[in-house]
Amino acid sequence: xxxxxxxxxxxxxxxLLWAAALAGCAPAGEALxxxxxxxxxxxGVYDGELTLGELRRRGDLGLGTFNALDGEMIVLxxxxxxxxxxxxxxxxxxxxxxxxxxxxxxxxxxxxxxYDPERDGASLEKxxxxxxxxxxxxxxxxxxxxxxxVMVRSVPAQRRPYPRLAQAAAGQKVFxxxxxxxxxxxxxxxxxxxxxxxxxxxxxFLSADRAAxxxxxxxxxxxADVRVMEIRRVELQLPDTPEFxxxxxxxxxxxxxxxxEK
Length: 262
Prior knowledge:
Elements: H1 3-25, E1 31-35, H2 38-42, E2 50-51, H3 52-56, E3 61-65, E4 72-76, E5 79-83, E6 89-91, E7 97-98, E8 101-104, E9 113-115, H4 117-120, H5 124-131, E10 138-154, H6 165-169, E11 173-189, E12 200-207, E13 213-231, E14 233-237, H7 242-246, H8 254-261
Parallel strand pairs: 1-14
Antiparallel strand pairs: 1-8, 2-7, 3-4, 3-8, 4-5, 5-6, 9-13, 10-11, 10-13, 11-12, 12-13
């Protein structure tokens, strides 16, 4: 081996050591994958180029919406469900597209918790806060249970020129379900991510028979099994569309967003 070859080998060895060191320093755990941002959705960017098949490869639990803002998305056990404003739910095809979604490969902490309102004496959301103690971390949650009542909503499909989200949400359809079994999925994100996603709890519901669901407004559980996953990595993919490139994003609008969510 001549000097040139020895030099190349040494440089390759140093590069491999550097790469290994970076890998050793990489954050542990699964990443929350998010496509687009809530401020963009609020401004009426309702068409994205990400397919649902691509989204499913990024995670098996999550939520979002569909192009033209056509209903509420529930991602559960790797399947994508679409809860539309007519009160129906269907399995969404891989070829469909989304303007906003967030998913994670759900790997909850070992075990889990059983929520009992008679014993725990708190609302389900307050109970969840006790399982997500750090205000600076993100959490994913899955709740399987029996509910005395569940109130969900869905927003109907919009037509171009698209209105802002506050205007579109004014036409939402609200459904109250009673004596229903089902699953709640979603996330709690820190306040400092308000310019990217919904701060606090953002939850969607799907009934066990896959016949009803939507964005969760409120619920009253009889009992529920809760599993929580701590998230310390967030991957954000921005749309490559003319609408996203041109929209004026001026930052989070906390009060307006909270009105829409509630």
